[in-house]
Design a protein that fits this description.
This protein is mainly alpha-helical and 195 residues long. The chain folds into 2 domains: 69 residues; 102 residues, Four Helix Bundle (Hemerythrin (Met), subunit A). 76% of the residues lie in helices and 0% in strands. It is elongated, with a radius of gyration of 38 Å. The N and C termini lie far apart (83 Å).
Length: 195
C-alpha cells in the first residue's frame, strides 16, 4: 500500500480553535490579561510608528531620486558644454567641417582639402600619442590595437587620403564618400578627446 504523507490543515485549525475557544476568560489570571493588553497596545504603537517610518522613507527616497536625476541631467549638460567648448578650441576641425559641408559644384575640391587637413590632424595626434614613424602609415603600424580601438577606422580614412593624394583631381570623390571619410576621422579623434 502506498503511504502518502500530507499536511492535515483541518486538524491543525481544529486544535488551535480548541485551545482558544475552550478557555474561559475567568480562568485566565488578571495579570496575564493586563500583560496581553499592554503587549497589544505596544504592538499598535509600534505598527503606527513603522507606518510613519515607511511613509517618511518612501517620500525621502523619492526626493533623493529626484535630486539624483537633476544632478545627472546637469552633469550631462556640463559635459555637452565642455565638448562644445573643446570643439571651439580646435579651429582646425571646425575648418574641416566647413570644407566638407561645401555645396557640390565647387565642393569636390573642398571635400578633398577637408580629407587632407583631417589626415594632417591625424598625423599630429599620432605624434602626440608618441607613436614612432616618419609617416602616418608607419605610425599606424606602430599603434597597439588594444590601446587604439579605432585603429581600423584610422587606416580606412588614411587610405582614402592616400588615394586622393596620388590621384588628385582625377579621383571622382562623391559627397557621401567625403562625409563618410570625415566621420571616420571624427570617430578616431573622439576616442582620444582630440576634438
Amino acid at each position: 500500500m502506498d503511504d502518502t504523507n500530507y499536511l492535515n490543515l483541518e486538524y491543525i485549525l481544529v486544535k488551535i480553535y480548541n485551545l482558544f475557544a475552550g478557555v474561559d476568560a475567568g480562568e485566565i489570571p488578571a495579570q496575564s490579561l493586563i500583560l496581553i493588553e499592554r503587549i497589544a497596545w505596544v504592538g499598535i504603537g509600534l505598527s503606527f510608528l513603522f507606518l510613519i517610518a515607511i511613509v517618511y522613507f518612501r517620500v525621502r527616497l523619492g526626493q533623493v531620486e529626484h535630486a539624483g536625476w537633476h544632478r545627472r541631467v546637469e552633469e550631462e549638460i556640463a559635459l555637452a558644454q565642455k565638448r562644445d567648448t573643446h570643439k571651439a578650441l580646435n579651429p582646425r576641425w571646425q575648418h574641416v567641417i566647413e570644407l566638407v559641408n561645401a555645396p557640390p559644384p565647387e565642393g569636390q575640391n573642398n571635400w578633398q582639402r577637408a580629407i587632407l587637413e583631417a589626415d594632417n590632424m591625424l598625423a599630429d595626434l599620432l605624434t602626440q600619442l608618441g607613436l614612432r614613424g616618419s609617416s602616418v602609415g608607419e605610425q599606424l603600424r606602430d599603434a597597439n590595437p588594444l590601446q587604439f580601438t579605432t585603429l581600423d577606422l584610422a587606416w580606412e580614412a588614411h587610405k582614402m587620403r592616400n588615394t586622393l593624394a596620388h590621384m588628385g583631381e582625377t579621383y571622382p570623390l562623391a559627397e557621401r564618400e567625403a562625409h563618410a571619410t570625415i566621420d571616420l576621422y571624427r570617430r578616431v579623434f573622439e576616442e582620444f578627446n582630440y576634438i
